[in-house]
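Homework help board

Subject: predicted structure for assignment chain

Our instructor gave us this sequence and asked us to write out the predicted structure in token form, then describe one feature. I got the tokens but I'm not sure how to describe them. Can anyone check?
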Amino acid sequence: MGWTIATAHAGRGHATELACALLDLAFAGLGVRPVEAHAFADNAPIPRVMEKVGLRHEGTFKEASLHRTRGWVDGVTDAMLASEHRARG
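My token output:
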């Protein structure tokens, strides 16, 4: 799962709203069982969004993500199971 928010619209809750809608679509609409989200570890707003929507931190991985201008950077992976999503109501 992924999203991009234009800088002009950052900090308004759009990413959180979008992530919630994507989770609902994945679990209720498509019948997906696990959902994973990946982000650059130093992009602080994204891991905060992943936490807000209930994704569970799976790990931080050294130089696991390729950034187009910075090269290899640390990445984070968070996940949620369908059963966890149902339990959140």
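Reply (TA_rk): Your tokens look well-formed. For the description, you could write something like this. The two ends are 20 Å apart (CA to CA). That's the kind of observation they're looking for.
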